[in-house]
Amino acid sequence: MVNAFWLDRDLERVAAWLVDRHVTSSVFECSMVLTTAAQQNGYPESDDLYFTHPDNPLTRWAARSAANWEYLRAYTEAAHDEWRYRWEHEPTERHGCWATVCSLDEAAVDGLEWPAEGRTDPPQLTGAWTADDYVDAYRYYYANDKRHLFGWAKDRSMPPWIDEYTVDTVDEGTNQSTDDAG
Fold this sequence. Notes:
Blueprint: H1 11-17, H2 20-40, H3 57-64, H4 66-86, H5 96-102, H6 106-110, H7 134-145, H8 162-165, H9 178-181
């Protein structure tokens, strides 16, 4: 599934907290979402651009407003910078997917007819882990459903909030440990 992992509102911190696998997948998947969302709003189609997952909630969210699109672009750029950092790529080297996003004509993207104004919260693509705040939902999701992927290269390490969001069993519909509920 296409996803972005909104582990914080500070996007540099998000990128530093992504497990290694999600650093690369965020660049790849979110680049596809960005080019698809732009094309859905009238950006000229091209064989050089990705068009995939148009009905995914993240794609629909990014296509809803220029502000949403820009926020996802900033997330993807932070993940790309982290990709360079963790695997010691040269400052001028670009992941191929990010290079595709960078090839978009910024003036053309700015001039698209976006359906709505302003930014809204990203969708919670977090399975059973939901919360009033999307950052909390993603932290629960990461701490519990993504543990099997835990691994951080270079000097990156597990986010400090993991233990706070880890639960042994979940009381249906609450995201609270049954051990803590009593």
